[in-house]
User: Fold these one by one.
Assistant:
Number 1:
Amino acid sequence: MIRQLNYCLAGGLGLLSLQACKAPQPDATAQQPNVIYVFPDQFRNHALGFWGQDGFRQKINFRNDPVHTPFLDDFAHESVVLTSAMSNCPLSSPHRGSLLTGMYPNKSGIPLNCNTNRPISTLRDDLECVSDVFSKAGYDCAYFGKLHANFPTPNDPQNPGQYVENQKPVWDAYTPPEKRHGFNYWYSYGTFDEHKNPHYWDTEGKRHDPHEWSPLHEAKKVVSYLKNEGNVRDPHKPFFIMVGMNPPHSPYRSLDDCMEEDFNLYKDQPLDSLLIRPNADITMKKAQSAPYYFASVTGVDRAFGQILSALKELGLDKNTIVVFSSDHGETMCSQRTDDPKNSPYAESMNVPFLVRFPDKLKPRVEDSLILSSPDIMPTLLGLAGLGDSIPSNVQGNNYAPLFFDEKAPVERPTGAIYIQNVDGEKDTEGKVRSYFPISRGFKSSRYTLALYIDRKDKKLVKSLLFDDEQDPYQLTNLPLEQHKEIVATLCAEMGKQLKKIDDPWYQERILEELIPYDE
Ligand code: CA
């Protein structure tokens, strides 16, 4: 860019010609970095070994889980690592909608988890997804693993006119080519939880049942793609790869769910040495899942490591941006809830976010960027030098400049919105035709606030307010009326953001006595 600018000025063309000067980039795609985005499902930020290491420990105020994540630990030393990436609507499909479109669940088309009971929740065909943009910029785009962003239809390629599974409602889905948003290589499924018996439909719609623990199988397929076995990609094009690993994900109850070698690391440890968060209740039945959960984390770490070592072997590591994040977290007996996600608690909302771009990003821990799910798409495009191609309707922000330079003049977000929706009205067949926005909240650098409303009169029925600085394990729910100033400040920010994203709470002025929408 600087060279082009000099050329333009030397040519006496002046600043107005900058746009024109941008155009002639000889063999531009050869310079473009590759991008790999890996996101397992219920992987909480706390389940990373490096947070206990010097240089990382000082940037957080919680104790990390006692997990073995050697590959991610090494990767963290080479990456920009965020402390505060948030899954705004910490549930499978809504997060995926935001990740793909850069929009909040009220605009992505996916306000609720996708299944056949919910025709209102499916990825919008008309939106330009992150993969559409990469594809238009000359990338080969490949998707591996769990997608869970489509309303399932009876389109099983092997059984015409049938759904891909028999259970009702149908959750799993086949994604036909016209719904793949620029991905020209496909090895994916909707959602399915037999971790050692996964299945995938490939680019041509052929089904594969590899009988292998899914993250390791997907890593193998990604490595094969990187090596271009079978001539599956154009080696002259840059690539954009997304890998949606399902584990760690329930069930976590037997060696059908994780690898034995990983389970052996945790099986003999007493539960109180595994579930070390002071807000965890080890008397819960679910506590027995802890060794399986952490074994899944370690297995995912190894699968990720296999992708990294293939990149290195192939000499692709230098010009490849690699991101590791997740769909949302896992409460795992914290806060005495059986729901692993779908709550504003740190274990549910706070996700890993690590970005490696050798020689371009200086490794560091970034503890003052609260990243939201819709920010990921524009930020990925920005990191790849495609900031100018971010679709104008994207609601998230491109924070790539802050990854390149922590002093970049980019305004940092004051916090992240929390979103929980539930089924709204149903038709005579029991199909969900609307969603009800039962909770909204705001996670600032210091506080977490969530407000819940009654389904009938939309009045406040419950609130959560935590001082995450003083009370990192969110043990004390502060009463709103005793913390009026704090609530007013948080609600002011929340109102501003809900208005900006045109959320139903803004449209209906829900709880306007608390939330100033129009100031
Ligand atoms: Ca999920």
Number 2:
Amino acid sequence: MTDQHKKLSKFLSLVLRHEPQAIGLTLDAQGWADVDEFIAKAGAHGKPYSRALIEQLVRDSDKQRFKLSDDGLRIRANQGHSIDIDLALQPVEPPASLYHGTATRFAGSIRRSGLDKRSRQHVHLSLDRDTAVKVGSRHGTPLVLHVRAGEMHAHGIAFYRADNGVWLTDAVAPQFIDWPARG
Ligand code: HQG
């Protein structure tokens, strides 16, 4: 991806997850935007998207951040929203183990109160440690926590899998978190 494409991917993410109003766009209740309307409104704000570029950004997103509707007319972010939308995901049974990537500076607070969703709509969990390291590195020195998801599910706590494979839940209480030997 070129630097310009990275910038336009980030801006698409910003609009679809956090600030549709930045370009005067309205998302529907499930977070979908009309692609042509997005292109027109982003263009009016100096951001040069085309339908072909959007299809390319959807296809090439390293984390598969976006999804086009089957008819190709609408687009939404697969996860990561801070605005109040309903992804309409069905609860599914998670694997026994999931991982959460965070930063060492949050350790004290997480030990006390567990993981909460902060500004987003869910706590985000990864299937593998490598992904969790990458997610945590965005915040500082990465710290990977093991989450006993199967046990949480057995306690009746709901899990969801976003279309890009990221696992989501509302909160993780401290008793379901295993800490690395040093961290
Ligand atoms: C931490 C990225 C203190 C939490 C990724 C995290 C992901 C606490 C930070 C997606 C806490 C929130 C989401 C507590 C949680 N005390 N800190 N009680 N509970 N935290 O960015 O999970 O590249 O909102 O550990 O791939 O880092 O943007 O969430 O460090 O899927 O597409 O508070 O965003 O995707 O940070 O990342 P975030 P996240 P993109």
